[in-house]
Amino acid sequence: MIKIRPYRSTDWPRLCEIHDSSRLDELDLTVGADAFLTLEQTAENEGIFDGQLMVAEVDNIVQGFIAYSDKEITWLYVAPAFYRRGVGRALVRQAISDSASTMDVEMLEGNAPALELYRSEGFEVVKRIEGTLEGNEGFAAAGLVLRRNIKSG
């Protein structure tokens, strides 16, 4: 069973483990692992604590996390051992339940598992962006902006 709860400072080491392992998987699908930066290196500049930060526990161990405002999902990472086991979906649904009538998410183009999850929860691609990787501007990247309207799902 998946339990969603607010982040506690004692969760930080586990969030770093989850982010760092799953971020490498994400980059392997998109811009390449050479663009990797740890959560320690990026969290503050990329505003992980600016909105809500929730974690998903399975058997009392944090296996995923999501950061969001009422209009945007800004971070979603799941421990690799828990991919496709409902953790990411539970976190997205929590964010949706706390959201305004419209919620956006930006993701790297090529991350098919993330795109599939967001689409299955009612998000639609509204824009493609080419530029550099946010937080690591030395790397070219293409991203997608997805939007979910309350009416869509």
Low-confidence blocks of residues: none
Strand order of the largest sheet: 1-2-3-4-5-7-6
Q: Would you tell me the structural class of the helices and strands?
A: alpha+beta
What's the main sheet like?
Answer: 7 strands, mixed
Describe the structure in your own words:
This protein has four helices and seven strands, in the order E-H-H-E-E-E-H-E-H-E-E. The chain is α+β, with helices and mostly antiparallel strands and 153 residues long. The protein has a seven-stranded mixed β-sheet. Strand 4 (72-78), helix 3 (87-97) and strand 5 form a beta-alpha-beta unit. The longest helix is centred in the N-terminal third of the chain and has 18 residues, at 12-29. The radius of gyration is 15 Å and the shape is globular. The protein starts with a strand and ends with a strand. 26% of the residues are buried. The mean pLDDT is 95.
